[in-house]
């Protein structure tokens, strides 16, 4: 288990991370979210032991993170970190050596991973001759060649088409099933919702929201009702608890302050004819993210 306990990081007088705490269990996918400059990269660097916290503790399986521990960590950075004049084979041999792996082990794992990602024919090709999507596959392979116990994924789907996103998703979920602890960071909230059981949202280095995703959605007050049928927008806006009504090609999306007001809308719909759809939906993570980050910046 990874534990980040009351961690603060200063760069001079600037506080990049402010009393951050979270834990990631074995076989759990954890979301670390925030806008640019929120403190995510600094947190990743502290977990990797590249920089020291100003205060607080970071441990993995009860031990302070050192070189022995970092050999068990994989890190896919948001920025390309490939040496583009190397071949794919040379690149992975280099990264594997950094993780204290023997060449025979690296090459055996590499062949399996190249086949899994459908790029076996590129083994002896230079990185700079590959497409962006295939470069991302190589970068992902470099992050998991050591079969990590902890894997940090920062925007892992960058440059990928939908088919390859599905391929990456299947590999990530396989790693989870094998017990890898995974930290997932992305600006695409729909991707976060696919994977993450727990999450933290950071603003200016400080936690503004944390917990299990299902509980966060349940507790977030604003709900949405999707209606298709013969209704009047002005009538909907008059109903107690209705915040807004948006019309689209299929019908109406009604935002309500709390789920308790849904019954009033349902009672109204019983007076109308030809109602084809009435669904109370939870807010999306993107809506929650925008609301919480907006609140934090508004303070």
Strand arrangement within the widest β-sheet reads 6-7-8-3-9-10
Helix content: 25-40%
Main sheet summary = 6 strands, mixed
N-to-C CA distance: 34 Å
Mean pLDDT over the full residue set:
92
Strand-pairing-aware structural class = alpha/beta
Morphology call? globular
Count the beta strands.
Answer: 14
Low-confidence stretches: none
**Helix segment tally:** 11
Order of SSEs, N→C?
A: EEEHEEHEHHHEHEHEEHEHEEHEH
Strand fraction: 25-35%
CA radius of gyration: 23 Å
Q: Topology of this protein?
A:
Elements: E1 2-11, E2 14-24, E3 29-34, H1 40-47, E4 55-60, E5 63-64, H2 67-70, E6 73-76, H3 88-98, H4 103-116, H5 132-144, E7 150-154, H6 162-177, E8 181-185, H7 189-195, E9 198-203, E10 206-212, H8 213-219, E11 223-229, H9 233-238, E12 242-247, E13 252-256, H10 262-269, E14 275-281, H11 285-298
Parallel strand pairs: 3-8, 3-9, 6-7, 7-8
Antiparallel strand pairs: 1-2, 1-4, 4-5, 9-10, 11-13, 11-14, 12-13
Could you explain how this protein is built, in words?
- The protein is α/β, with parallel strands linked by helices and 299 residues long.
- Helices cover 36% and strands 29% of the residues.
- The protein has helices at 40-47, 67-70, 88-98, 103-116, 132-144, 162-177, 189-195, 213-219, 233-238, 262-269, 285-298, and strands at 2-11, 14-24, 29-34, 55-60, 63-64, 73-76, 150-154, 181-185, 198-203, 206-212, 223-229, 242-247, 252-256, 275-281.
- The strands form 3 sheets. A 6-stranded mixed β-sheet has the order 6-7-8-3-9-10. A 4-stranded antiparallel β-sheet has the order 2-1-4-5, covered by helices on one side. The protein has a 4-stranded antiparallel β-sheet with strand order 12-13-11-14.
- Helix 3 packs parallel to helix 5.
